[in-house]
Amino acid sequence: MDRSTGRFGGMAAALVALGLAVSPASAVVILDSTWKAEGGAKGRETAGFKAHLKLAAEPQFRAVLALSTPDGAWGEASGTWIGNVEGHAWILTAAHIFELPGSTDDYVVRGPKGEIMKADRLVIHPKWNGDTETRTGFDLALIRLKKPIEGLGEPPLIHAGGSEAGKTITFVGYGNRGIGSKGEQAKFYEGSDKAAARGVVDQYVDPAGAKKKKGDLGNWMGVFLPKEDGSIENPYGGSNKPADRMVGLLGSGDSGGSAWMKVGGTWAIVGVNGNGTGHARYGDSSWMARVSPHREWIMSVFPGAQFTP
Fold first, then answer.
1. CA 186 – CA 28 distance, rounded (Å)
2. How many helices (H) and strands (E) in the chain?
3. How far is CA 112 from CA 24, 30, 238, in A?
4. Integer Cα distance of 245 and 251 in angstroms
5. Distance of CA 307 to CAs 45, 168, 169, 253, 299, Å?
6. For residue 67, which of 101, 99, 91, 89 has the smallest C-alpha distance?
7. Which has more pLDDT, 8 or 229?
């Protein structure tokens, strides 16, 4: 797999080609055409997201929860419940939402009944150094809550294999919203519900070798937002047109939420929402850390995590 050019090329080369810098994911942006079909219009900007809210509300995504700073608003970040053990719930999220070294007091979690849940342990991936340009694939953190989470059914499965390249994934979170022609804007956002969108993994990079210490360490995947008429060339070799009406990009509060894929007929977490380019408009990209190569680390912190075979 070529890590510098082509369909599954590297992030650094992609950014040079686009003239863009990496930043935390910035807007749940959807296609203009879908927004209009769902009732979005001038003066009714918040009305066009019904299909994306409905998708996020499907039961397989119930483990995705909202995070907030103690005095902030819900949706500042997202996370995914991955199980309970010994009276504690564990949340998988992104490391970049914390200012290193991070603290258990930085965020609270909104439980499934709206209850505010506090953390008593935070574990940030040891290879995360705060650099979204070179460590996207290691942008992971685990939060242990003081109490278990009940009412969400069985914990979700975490993908233990590969094969994400070229597949359609669904990413879920509580971020802000927008449309492809405008990007993220406050007028598109209302309420505190999670939304979901889909994308084709046009960028896919395996982890770099263990001896590599500098530069991009790989282990990420990315999606691109095409325009409906195909007028923007996909720089990663994928289609110039959206795969379906639910295509979109990540959002600022989507950071730490999860990307999902059907594996053997069962939904599984394949990534953690990370960052993206530009203003999350047509022609921009979003990236996620792949979780399967982190099985050993996740299990070392939370042995109760459930992985696919």
1. 11
2. 4, 19
3. 26, 26, 37
4. 18
5. 40, 20, 18, 26, 10
6. 91
7. 229
Residue listed under structure tokens 């296609």? 31
- The per-residue pLDDT for range 248-282, each reduced to its tens digit, is 998 777 789 999 999 989 999 999 999 888 888 99
Compute the residue count for the chain.
309
Residues 135/22, Cβ–Cβ less than 8 Å: no
Give the pLDDT of residue 288.
96
Question: Between β-strands 266-277 and 157-158, what pairing exists: parallel, antiparallel or unpaired?
Answer: parallel
Helix, strand, coil fractions of the chain, as percent rounded to 5: 15, 30, 50
Q: Which residue has the tokens 């070294």?
A: 101
> Is-contact 258 171, C-beta < 8 A?
yes
**For residue range 57-73, what is the model confidence (pLDDT) as tens digits?**
999 999 999 999 998 88
The pair of three-digit structure tokens given for residue 300, joined into one six-digit string: 């070392």
| Cα–Cα distance list, 45 to 116, 191, 247 (Å) | 30, 13, 18
Distances (CA, A) of 85 to 43, 73, 89: 48, 28, 7
Structure tokens belonging to residue 145: 């809550």
| Cα 76 from Cα 160, distance rounded (Å) | 29
Per-residue pLDDT for 4 more than 60?
Answer: no
Tell how far CA 106 is from the center of its chain: 20
Do residues 183 and 29 touch, judged by C-beta distance below 8 A?
Answer: yes
Instruction: Of 104, 95, 98, give the one whose Cα is nearest residue 138.
Output: 95
The mean per-residue pLDDT over the stretch 269-297 comes to 94
The pLDDT confidence band at residue 27, using thresholds 50, 70 and 90, is very low
Task: Name residue, tokens 């890590």.
Answer: 3
The residue whose two tokens read 């929402």 is 273
Does residue 301 carry a pLDDT above 50?
yes
The answer to pTM > 0.85 is yes
Q: How much of the chain, in percent, has pLDDT values that exceed 70?
A: 91
